């Protein structure tokens, strides 16, 4: 029988749940785009985006998804034939590298072993060999959503030393979920998108630009050029045409919730706590079952927004969880053995109630499908949250 009748639960790593308040703000007819309230709302969104990234630099908004953000970032950053060093920890780092290569950039990949973060020493040694400074940019993800590996951005920046390459970061899966301080950490370029930690529907990409970058590359085309967007006077100039009216209202509410109502530090702590509950559950499930394991062994290198794991029969488990429990889990994207891997998204507008439901669904599915697993996972997850929440 099925227990799926109820509000469907989406536990994939993006798009994440959209808060009712954001949806309500978006549920409106188009407004004037030349004057009136929307102009102020847009200005508030732009200011909030800078606060969110911890920068006094510029931000260019685009209508598009994360891939659009990649294209905006890469084409404004580099000229045709420039060399970029991409630190790869999974499918998204590899995806950014492939995207840049297709644009005519000479891409070199520094790939970490599966489930491991980029090694600052390896980066330092590669850059030390680059005596004539052919490498113009170092690109990496903060969190690779496929493996749930989290890179230590300050350590990587420090490893770059005084090499002049720009440091460009994809924080699409992590911004809003864990700390990122663009200016303090020496990040020159940051990319993110609306639909993961930022709690709005897919459709907006953002590129933040530090003072070292000047734009004006030979790869950039008029729509993607960030210069008119960061210098915008009129609303249409921010967006390279008609602004996405409803999305701007939605982002405004989402950013207020994140920055003003919950507060960024509290949001990060919530994500960290929920992630620890997931890890505690997996520690129990995997005890004595080596085929069932978190992809990232080192807790310091685990994302706070998504968890990848191998589970024998994961594809069947995911299908069962959707049909019988009404919970959709993430695909084992990019795993060596995708049919025996899955991911749990725990980013954005997510409470303990939803997360505990997801963990209980995973356990129910493993029990129903006779997938061997260790006991005590739900007790461990609840104990962890109880300890963190306090009395
Ligand atoms: C989701 C994601 C992307 C791609 O974003 P789309 O909106 O799917 O184009 C890129 N990088 C990372 C780290 C992501 O999590």
Summarize the structure.
With 391 residues, this protein is α/β, with parallel strands linked by helices. Helices cover 41% and strands 17% of the residues.
Strands, total number: 14
Instruction: Provide the list of bound ligands, each named once.
Output: pyridoxal-5'-phosphate
Number of helices: 13
What's the average pLDDT? 98
What oligomerization state is this entry in?
Answer: single chain
- Globally, the shape reads globular
Termini distance? 39 Å
- Please mark out the parts with pLDDT under 50 across 5 or more consecutive residues, or reply none: none
Main-sheet strand order equals 2-10-9-8-5-3-4
Structural Rg: 21 Å
Query: Could you tell me the strand content as a percent range?
Result: 15-25%
Helix fraction by DSSP (H/I, runs of at least 4): 40-55%
Secondary structure layout plus pairing:
Elements: E1 9-11, H1 20-26, H2 37-53, E2 58-63, H3 66-77, E3 83-88, H4 91-102, E4 106-111, H5 120-129, E5 135-141, E6 143-144, E7 149-150, H6 153-160, E8 166-170, E9 189-193, E10 204-209, H7 226-230, H8 235-239, H9 245-262, H10 264-286, E11 293-294, E12 306-310, H11 314-325, E13 327-331, E14 341-345, H12 352-368, H13 377-389
Parallel strand pairs: 1-13, 3-4, 3-5, 5-8, 8-9
Antiparallel strand pairs: 2-10, 6-7, 9-10, 11-12, 12-14, 13-14
Bound molecules: pyridoxal-5'-phosphate.
Keywords:
14 strands; globular; 391 residues
């Amino acid at each position: 029988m099925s227990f799926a009748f109820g509000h469907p639960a989406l536990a994939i790593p993006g798009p994440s749940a959209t808060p009712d308040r954001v949806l309500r703000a978006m549920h409106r007819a188009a407004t004037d785009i030349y004057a009136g309230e929307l102009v102020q709302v847009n200005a508030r969104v732009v200011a909030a985006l800078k606060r969110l990234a911890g920068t006094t630099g510029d931000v260019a908004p685009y209508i598009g998804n994360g891939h659009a953000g990649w294209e905006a970032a890469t084409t404004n950053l580099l000229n045709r034939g420039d060399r970029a060093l991409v630190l790869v920890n999974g499918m998204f780092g590899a995806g950014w590298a492939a995207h840049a290569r297709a644009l005519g950039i000479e891409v070199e990949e520094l790939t970490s072993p599966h489930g491991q973060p980029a090694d600052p020493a390896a980066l330092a040694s590669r850059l030390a060999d680059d005596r004539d400074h052919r490498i113009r940019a170092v690109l990496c993800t903060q969190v690779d959503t496929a493996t749930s590996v989290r890179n230590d951005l300050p350590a990587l920046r420090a490893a770059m030393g005084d090499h002049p390459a720009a440091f460009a970061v994809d924080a699409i899966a992590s911004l809003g979920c864990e700390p990122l301080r663009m200016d303090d950490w020496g990040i020159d370029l940051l990319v993110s998108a609306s639909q993961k930690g930022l709690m709005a529907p897919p459709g907006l990409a953002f590129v933040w630009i530090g003072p070292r970058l000047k734009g004006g590359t030979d790869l950039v085309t008029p729509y993607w050029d960030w210069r008119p967007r960061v210098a915008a006077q009129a609303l249409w100039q921010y967006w390279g045409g008609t602004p996405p009216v409803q999305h701007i209202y939605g982002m405004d509410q989402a950013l207020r919730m994140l920055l003003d109502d919950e507060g960024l530090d509290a949001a990060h702590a919530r994500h960290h706590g929920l992630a620890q509950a997931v890890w505690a559950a997996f520690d129990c499930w995997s005890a004595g079952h080596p085929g069932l394991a978190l992809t990232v062994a080192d807790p310091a290198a685990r994302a706070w927004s998504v968890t990848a794991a191998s589970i024998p029969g994961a594809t069947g488990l995911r299908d069962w969880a959707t049909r019988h429990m009404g919970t959709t889990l993430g695909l084992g994207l990019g795993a060596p053995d995708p049919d025996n891997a899955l991911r749990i998204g725990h980013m954005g507008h997510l409470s303990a109630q939803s997360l505990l439901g997801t963990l209980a669904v995973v356990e129910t599915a493993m029990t129903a499908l006779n997938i061997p697993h260790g006991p005590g996972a739900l007790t461990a997850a609840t104990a962890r949250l109880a300890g963190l929440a306090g009395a």
